[in-house]
Amino acid sequence: MTDARPLGADEAAFMAVVRSGDSARFALITERHRRELQVHCYRMLANYEDAQDLTQETFLRAWNKRESFKGHAALRTWLYRIATNACLDFLDKRNDRTPVPSGLADVGSEVLYLQPYPDRMLPEDPQESVVARETIELAFIVAVQHLPPRQRAVFILRDVLGWPASKAAEALELTVASVTSALQRARVTMREQLPDRRLDWRRPATHELSNDERGVVKLYIDAHERNDLDGLMSLLREDLRFVMLPEAGTSSVTAKDAVDGWVSGGLFQPGYDDWRCITTTFNRMPAAALYRRTPDDPQYRLFTIAVLHVVDGKIAELIGFDATDKPWLDLPPTL
């Protein structure tokens, strides 16, 4: 994320676009940054559809502000600055983009607007810090939502993307002292939200699923397709954390409470007893796409996504997402 010195090829080409006003060349140059900018917006907003919209807003703002680009910073840096401020403007106008009380003592709040991120839309370079698994997993994304928006921006720019304090301050129109103070407060909150996770985001990142994760998701799918409640229960840690989004009030903090809720909702009973599932990944985490067939329907239709956090061969966290009418999930709608 360092500034280009001397003027790089991207910057020189972009400045030529500015002089010519060629919108097609502008799109060609900026498009290569779309995926990483969308991940950045997703970290800020925790919602895939919002991230798509704000990435497009970033490109619109960049086009309208193109003459302000003088090549003093890398084009990439300039685009990140625009994207960050577009997200902050969005958050300033929305009162439904903060965690809400869960009603449970052990689960302080729920992020009802959280959506999973399709792995196919991550930047392709596995060495990029922007795709580090530790900073795209759902627990991290949820934890970041507990930061006030500007503090959130500081934390992402400094600790995730590795920007120096001076560059983050310039991007956010803050003093270096303000950025340093905001980062210190953000780190405290992140430690509170992720007490059992490592917090050094600059260490080498992992990307691949472990054998444990692959095995557990396979068993999870098998239990669903066989309507095996005992088998499903055996995969869950006793202190399982579960939530079904975007529904409010679905959080639970024990496996028994979660399973009781599933059963009372009709799981493995008529209408919810004919399943086909496929293994997938979201947010670089193991996941299962669950397809349900009802008695009057010849096809299995995409119903929910279950994203799993596996610890020592057991499911420690399960976040379910309504998957109906969401083509951006990039899953077949029927089986």
TrEMBL record:
Keyword check for ATP-binding: no
Domain of life assignment: Bacteria
Domain RNA polymerase sigma-70 region: 31-95
GO biological process, one term: DNA-templated transcription initiation
Family annotation (SUPFAM superfamilies): NTF2-like (SSF54427), Sigma2 domain of RNA polymerase sigma factors (SSF88946), Sigma3 and sigma4 domains of RNA polymerase sigma factors (SSF88659)
GO MF entries: DNA binding; sigma factor activity
Alphabetized UniProt keyword annotations: DNA-binding, Sigma factor, Transcription, Transcription regulation
Span of domain RNA polymerase sigma factor 70 region 4 type: 140-189
Family to which the UniProt record says this protein belongs: Belongs to the sigma-70 factor family. ECF subfamily.
Matching PANTHER family: ECF RNA POLYMERASE SIGMA FACTOR SIGG, RNA POLYMERASE ECF-TYPE SIGMA FACTO
Subunit description: Interacts transiently with the RNA polymerase catalytic core formed by RpoA, RpoB, RpoC and RpoZ (2 alpha, 1 beta, 1 beta' and 1 omega subunit) to form the RNA polymerase holoenzyme that can initiate transcription.
Name of protein: RNA polymerase sigma factor
